[in-house]
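[step 3/7] inverse_fold.run input=structure_tokens len=388
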């Protein structure tokens, strides 16, 4: 087993990310330990597919340590990470009799974790929260750092909070049941981590994708060293979060939490313009990185060789859905609603080289340059494969 300690010294909050095969079976004991025996009820939020695979195992583990349990299954899909679903989740927590000392447990991918975490942050003004992420993307990214929230018609994650979990349990066995597209989405986020802040992590990820060609479809690339690989990505993100937990608007340096938004401005626009139905989040981030790479090159920041390395890395993650049929004017309009805008201007996360990000004010990116980057980044000829 691997353990990554997340430390937030400013608020004196620390919690563990425990990573390994079979960790789910220890959920009861681990939860009871971190909650200090004060929690008697656990409310599980999941979806039908994930709960069908792992719900019984989780219930058995929790009951063995004396938890009274209830569960609610949200609908699957990014379009259901909504205020309507949040209301349903809060109603469920109320009917469950959850008290301030009790805990909400998220069992699923990033959508489940975001919704369950936001429900935990708002119910009774905040109850305990435990993450059990079951997708690669959630394991290396969404479950680390405490960002929780829901989408609005105007854009992604426009309503949310910072609510740190008490514990994150990552069972690497769950990777074996993931569909190909979920793995592709996770690999894209893995590429993102290395691209913005750690060239060694970037190279490690690319090597794994290259060595294990079956990894995209069958998680084969994760069988040799799953816990170590996931731990490396969790450790990277935890270090960023420790230094800038709330993504300060005043910070624009290379260790700001903003650098984790690399590719997200375009990604969120792609998701919004397709009603959150066409793309997995990581797939959209894959395209977003290519667009940001094109902007970086056209501003004279990123060399052609580095951009090609980024393209090859995204291509190695797996085929992506089509994106070049979406009107650029619609994408530009969606970008204006991006929650990361400051004083009405988008802050672009761009690259100086692989492993070094730079945050650039949107005013430096002309409309002409942005349109060209969108055309090139989303173009069929540069698209790494195609889904459907």
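[step 3/7] decode complete -> sequence:
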């Amino acid at each position: 087993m691997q353990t990554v300690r997340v430390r937030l010294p400013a608020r004196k909050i620390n919690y563990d990310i425990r990573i390994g095969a079979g960790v789910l079976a220890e959920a009861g004991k681990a939860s009871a330990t971190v909650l200090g025996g004060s929690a008697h009820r656990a409310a599980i939020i999941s979806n039908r597919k994930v709960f069908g695979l792992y719900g019984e195992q989780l219930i058995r583990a929790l009951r063995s340590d004396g938890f009274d349990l209830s569960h609610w299954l949200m609908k699957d899909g990014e379009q259901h990470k909504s205020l309507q679903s949040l209301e349903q989740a809060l109603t469920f927590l109320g009917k469950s009799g959850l008290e301030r000392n009790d805990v909400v447990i998220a069992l699923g991918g990033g959508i489940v974790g975001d919704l369950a975490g936001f429900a935990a942050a708002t119910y009774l003004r905040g109850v305990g929260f435990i993450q059990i992420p079951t997708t690669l993307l959630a394991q290396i990214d969404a479950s680390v750092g405490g960002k929780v929230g829901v989408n609005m018609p105007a854009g992604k994650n426009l309503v949310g909070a910072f609510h740190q979990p008490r514990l994150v349990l990552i069972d690497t066995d769950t990777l074996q049941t993931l569909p190909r597209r979920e793995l592709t989405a996770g690999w894209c986020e893995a590429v993102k981590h290395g691209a913005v802040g750690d060239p060694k992590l970037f190279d490690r990820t690319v090597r794994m994708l290259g060595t294990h060609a079956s990894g995209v479809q069958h998680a084969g690339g994760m069988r040799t060293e799953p816990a170590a690989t996931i731990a490396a990505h969790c450790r990277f993100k935890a270090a960023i979060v420790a230094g800038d937990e709330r993504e300060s608007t005043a910070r624009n340096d290379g260790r700001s939490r903003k650098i984790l938004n690399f590719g997200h401005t375009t990604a969120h626009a792609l998701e919004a313009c397709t009603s959150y139905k066409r793309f997995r989040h990581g797939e959209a981030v894959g395209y977003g990185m290519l667009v940001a790479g094109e902007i970086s090159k056209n501003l004279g920041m990123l060399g052609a060789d580095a951009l090609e390395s980024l393209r090859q890395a995204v291509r190695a993650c797996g085929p992506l859905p089509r994106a070049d049929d979406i009107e650029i004017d619609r994408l530009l309009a969606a970008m204006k609603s991006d929650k990361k805008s400051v004083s009405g201007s988008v802050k672009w996360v761009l690259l100086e080289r692989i492993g070094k990000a730079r945050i650039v004010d949107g005013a430096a990116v002309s409309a002409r340059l942005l349109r060209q980057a969108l055309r090139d980044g989303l173009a069929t000829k540069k698209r790494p494969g195609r889904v459907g």
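[step 4/7] annotate
The radius of gyration is 20 Å.
The chain is about 45% helix and 20% strand.
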